Amino acid sequence: MIIIARRYGQLGNRLILFAHLIAAARHYGVELRNPCFGRYATYFPSTRNDVWCRYDRHLARATAPLDADLATADPPRQVIGPATHWTRSARRGLESLCEVTTKTAYLAKLRRFPAHILRIAPGEECDPLGDRFRQAVGSGRPVLVQGWRFRNASLLRQHRQPIIDFFQPDPTDRDAVERLIERARDQCDVLVGVHVRRGDYARFMGGRYYYSDADYARWMHEVEEQLPGRKVRFLICTNGQIQLDAFRELSFELGPGSMMQDLHSLARTDLLIGPPSTYTRWASFYGNVSLQSLDHRMAKIDAAVAVAEHPFDEPPTPVQHVSDSYHSTPIARAS
């Protein structure tokens, strides 16, 4: 058994770590538990009824539905039952217990018994197919992992579809996204997702990736210029304020405005652009959509990928320790 015993960032960071370790659990034929996903468990039918947020669908004793459609048949997230849903305080308590207990045992040098603790430092990377990880899983004891960069791109690629099935959205979110995408794609050839990241990016790295509406409008015009003869429309998702007037010469649709619906809407586009963020990088992985990360204000767009198929390849390396905060609704206003 593998247990993720530390929280890292917010939704995008946690999804990416979860996905890589699901791939590892499938490879070694063991169960994975992720109590540190509790904050977001209610957003996914596969995790909302399980305080441990476990992945064991590949095992004969699986506790979760094996069929992706069955996973959407769980009770509504508002329903709390004594044997199914756990309160937020209970989830937070289990997260903290796992994290503190693991750290305490590690510092006390109890790193091999009663559990095997696999802890990597910030910036360090551990390959799930490497000797260190393989020996830990092969010890026969539960493996408590702490660290963000457990990575193997080929393993993730191999197990992508079961991972996608596990993270199917709630039916309400899925249906809302379907309606939005149908409307956005009406009379357009290419739908481009634009992630206008605000919120915490005003402070992160001194505001390096906090771009203006004019910056985004310029990039969107570059996309249009590089796709002559194609009718391009943009899906703008933001967690802050935008001036609608800045985009008046462009054809665009605003995203739904919620964290989950924006995420899955971006995953349904043909090309994604936005600042470096694990949020858009998960959308890129989930939807198999090409992503251009705009890592500085003068970055240039290469929209050629928008006219081709996008076979899944190694997802871009996520930005570590960046939160993905979202307002409950987007705030968009005209000047």
TrEMBL record:
Q: Give the UniProt keywords, A-Z.
A: Glycosyltransferase, Transferase
Q: Does the keyword ATP-binding apply?
A: no
Please name one Pfam family that this protein belongs to.
Answer: Glyco_transf_11
UniProt region (Disordered), positions on chain = 312-335
Which terms does the record give in the GO molecular function aspect?
A: galactoside 2-alpha-L-fucosyltransferase activity
One of the record's GO cellular component terms: membrane
Keyword Transferase present in the record's keywords: the answer is yes
- InterPro entries, alphabetically? Glyco_trans_11 (IPR002516)
Any one Gene Ontology BP term: carbohydrate metabolic process
What's the protein here called?
Answer: Glycosyl transferase family 11
Which species is this record about? Roseiconus nitratireducens
* Lineage of producing organism: Bacteria, Pseudomonadati, Planctomycetota, Planctomycetia, Pirellulales
